[in-house]
Design a protein that fits this description.
alpha/beta, Arc Repressor Mutant, subunit A, 11 helices, DNA binding, Tscrpt_reg_LuxR_C
């Protein structure tokens, strides 16, 4: 074996030797998870992690600064969830490909991920099996769906056709969801205003709308609701 062949990456897909590797932004608020995912990706010659983030807002900032090819986003992160970050990135960087990495085998999250602009949904429990192929499929312009997601898509479509109904509208707007998450995390109105570049009065108006729409009376009830719908972790 020559010295050159010794240094050749072990997992090089056919036909991709001359192509530059896919530049990846990895966002997860758990350092151990990021380390494990990075180990998976580092073993592939066509994939390279160029940046990491530990919350959704940092992921958006890193993506805007570095312009990676692919963002892998955890759903449950501080400041902005992976879904919120995906919506923002789809708006400001429409060419960026997005994968959602999550522990939740949940149909609601799956459909929201697709709606937010993600090309795939990978479960952390099988990331060692599925993540690399999900990255490659996404960069080929193909959706990546785990088996349970395929079943959910088919079942949802058949139910809608049979019942003649559309998907239910969102209970709250995307902006209200952003503010709900930050309120539940304990941020003040001024903190939220600074983060979202709006006025504190606008924050208060959105919070009042949230309380009215959701039939709640205070921050505690908003926080419980945010936990129940997966915006923050308990």
């Amino acid at each position: 074996m020559t010295d050159q062949s010794k240094n050749q990456p072990r997992n090089q897909p056919k036909g991709q030797a001359e192509q530059p590797p896919t530049r990846i932004l990895l966002a997860d608020d758990h350092a151990l998870v990021r380390r494990g995912v990075r180990l998976i990706l580092d073993g592939e010659s066509d994939l390279v992690v160029v940046a990491e983030a530990d919350d959704g807002a940092e992921a958006v900032a890193q993506a805007r600064a570095l312009r990676p090819d692919l963002a892998i986003l955890d759903i449950a992160m501080p400041r902005l969830t992976g879904l919120q970050a995906a919506r923002e990135l789809s708006r400001v960087l429409p060419d960026l490909r997005i994968l959602i990495l999550t522990m939740y085998d949940n149909e609601q999250y799956f459909f929201e991920a697709l709606s937010a602009g993600a090309s795939g949904y990978v479960l952390k429990s099988v990331a060692d099996r599925d993540l690399v192929e999900a990255c490659r499929a996404t960069m080929r312009g193909e959706p990546f769906l785990y088996p349970g997601a395929v079943s959910a898509l088919v079942r949802n479509y058949l139910d809608r056709v049979r019942e003649g109904r559309a998907l239910p509208p969102r209970a709250i707007t995307e902006r209200e969801e952003e503010i709900l998450k930050l309120v539940a995390e304990g941020h003040t109105s001024q903190d939220i205003a600074d983060l979202l570049v709006i006025s504190p009065k606008t924050v208060e108006r959105h919070r009042a709308n949230l309380l009215q729409k959701l039939g709640m009376k205070d921050r505690l009830e908003l926080t419980r609701y945010a936990i129940r719908v997966g915006l923050i972790e308990p």
